[in-house]
Design goal:
Blueprint: E1 12-17, H1 33-47, E2 52-57, H2 75-99, E3 104-108, E4 117-118, H3 121-129, E5 133-137, H4 147-157, E6 162-167, E7 188-190, H5 191-196, H6 204-212, E8 217-221, H7 227-233, E9 239-242
Helix pairs in contact: 1-2, 4-6
Length: 252
Amino acid sequence: MSPRRRRRPFRRILLKLSGEAFQNRRTGDSLDPDVFVSMARQIKRARAMGIEIAIVVGGGNIFRGLPGEGCGIDRTTGDYMGMLATVINSLALQSALEREGLSTRCMSAINMPAVAEPFIRRRAIRHLEKGRVVLIGAGTGNPFFTTDTAAALRASEIEADALLKATKVDGVYTADPHKDPRARRYRELSYREALNRQLKIMDAAAFALCMDNDIPIVVFDFFRKDEILRVLRGESVGTRVHNGEVKHGKRG
């Protein structure tokens, strides 16, 4: 398969951003203004293509529930704190998007009407149809579920054409590319092949939701210039995981 083979363009996507993506890599500060500007400009260009965009963000740059247990915080409370962190990130990204002239709505799985609308499926879809970028915070609203699972759930609910998982690497590899120089990137994978190879693409619940609802997952490097635009044009960049047959699993 040609590395630039084009696929059917997307109509509506859910973009999953990790909380760590918002950090300043040099200073370690939780929120980097330059990162928000860069993200907002990329999303603006993607929106200009006519694609409806919903975004789920993590909160790991501020707080993670599981490590909180080491500080004497029980897991359930820690997970709720992590959900609140995702709302902080959503509001920060919303502000950056609006400075770029985009119309947005922030929605939350936890009721907090002073800062966000409650997540209601039909309302979210209506916002998307009106051209608004929808930011979805607070995960699923339940402890013990990751933001990957929240992303897969919301992608299923809004009937997204794909879940785009933005990372710091340009796809899924046979091994850690930072540790193994022989690691090779998969161009595409079937869900079953990813399971058989025990590739850690998303957690099990998130992966099962996407597989059951036939939502392709595209893993790509959000920090590579214009990479999201290439994904949205249907070019073969990153790694695409789907239910179809795969003839060429990885780059030689």
